[in-house]
Amino acid sequence: MKYQRGIYAVEFAIVGGFFLFLLFAIIEVGRMMFTYNVLHEASRRAARIAVVCQVDDTDISNMALFYGANLIPNLTPANLSISYLDETGNTATGIDIVLVKASISNYQHQFLVPGIARVINSPTFTTFLPRESLGVYHVDDDDTGSGYIDCN
Q1: Among 11, 109, 137, 138, whose CB has the most other CB atoms within 10 angstroms?
Q2: Phi, then psi, of 113 in degrees rounded to 5
Q3: Domain locations in the chain?
């Protein structure tokens, strides 16, 4: 009986370590799902803003990436690309634009679990939307109300 005095401490060390690892793993999976949700939303926002703002608007990426709010680390305008496409998927300009494609790519998710410093490359998040106004409304020579939308 006197040889079993520390058995509970040993059992706790083994089982407690496993449960702490499991707890951190659950937290990291939750963080990764949140990160993927933010990346998907940024892609969707970029496409939505691009279809209603002027093609040469330089502030689209800032608006799409939540006005600089640091929701997730290392998400920059360099991760965002916006393309204007024709019906065959080639790059288009002016009246030939049929689709807008917004992609978030090359984002790296870093785990924060103590003792496991790992980086995972996220997939590319892409959104396609049909063109809408592209920042122009009532284009008519006789209409004095015609103009451009300022998305800033």
Answers
A1: 109
A2: -65, 130
A3: 2-148
pTM over 0.85: no
* 100 touches 92 (CB < 8 A): no
DSSP collapsed to 3 states, the chain = CHHHCCHHHHHHHHHHHHHHHHHHHHHHHHHHHHHHHHHHHHHHHHHHHHHHCCCCCCCHHHHHCHHHCCCCCCCCHHHEEEEEECCCCCECCHHHCCEEEEEECCCEEECCCCCCCCEEECCCEEEEEECCCCCEECCCCCCCCCEECCCC
